Amino acid sequence: MSRRPINPSRRVADSGAASLDASIRSKTRSPPYLTIGLVIVGAFLLIGYFYRDTGTFASIKGAISGVEGDFLCTVEVQKAIPFLKKAYGDSMHKVLHVGPDTCSVVSKLLEEDDTEAWGIEPYDIEDAGRFCKKLVHKGIVRVADIKFPLPYHAKSFSLVIVSDALDYLSPKYLNRTLPELARVSSDGLVIFTGYPRHHKAKFAEKSRFGGLAKLRSSTWWVRYFVQTSLEENEVAIKKFEQVASKKSYVPSCQIFHLRSYP
C-alpha cells in the first residue's frame, strides 16, 4: 500500500503553531523573582498600614516631610538626640520640643531612658495619626500659637528644643517667643534653624504653614541673641561638638545652644 505523501507546508505550519503556543504559555507564566518582589512590596505596605501611628512610622513620615522642606530641622533633632544626651547629661531628663511634627520627636525622646518629654505643635494636627492625637489627648503634646505666652510655668522643663518654628517668625514675634522659650527652661535652650544656602525654589513658595521661611545666617542669629540678652552656652557647645566630631556627625541645620535666664 502506498503511503499518502505529507504536505511539507502543513508540517511547517503545525510546527509554527506549536512554537507559538509554547511561547504564549511561557510569557503568561510570571518569573519567580517577580512574584517574590511583589510579595515583599505587599509585606512592607502591610507593615506601614499597621504601624502608621507608632513612633517608628512617625519618624519615617518625618523624614519624608523633611525632604519636602517643612520638617527639615525637626528630622535633624531626632538624629541629634544621642549627641544632645552626651552634651547635656542630666539636663535631658525633662524636655520640651517646640516645632511642627513634634509628635515624632516626643516619641523618639520617650524611647530614651530617664527622659520625660512634652511637645508644642505650633500649627494644626488635622493630618496627624492616632498616635499623635493620643499624645494631644493626654496633654503631652499641645497645639499652641508660639507668638503668645506659652502655657507653662517658669522653668517647667530642664531643656527646651526648638526646630522649624522660628524660621517663620518676624523679629517682632521673635521678641516675644524667644524670651518665653528661655523662661520655661532651667538648664538651656537648643535652637535648630535652616541654613541660608538651603534656600532653594521650594522655600520660595509658601509652606504649608502659610508663610515664607526666613533663613538667617549664624551671624544674624548670634547678634539677635545678644540683643535679647540670651547668652550662648559655651560648655554645651564644646561638649556637643566633641561628641559629634567623634561620630563624624555633620548636621544639616544650624544648631545654637543658649543659656536659660537666671
TrEMBL record:
Task: Tell me which SUPFAM superfamilies the record gives.
Answer: S-adenosyl-L-methionine-dependent methyltransferases
Name the domain of life: Eukaryota
What InterPro entries does the database record attribute to this sequence?
A: CGR2/3 (IPR044689), SAM-dependent_MTases_sf (IPR029063)
Q: Which residues cross the membrane?
A: 33-51
Q: Which keywords does UniProt give here?
A: Membrane, Transmembrane, Transmembrane helix
Q: Which GO terms describe its molecular function?
A: methyltransferase activity
One Gene Ontology BP term is: pectin metabolic process
Name by which UniProt lists this protein:
S-adenosyl-L-methionine-dependent methyltransferase
Can you name the source organism?
Answer: Anisodus acutangulus
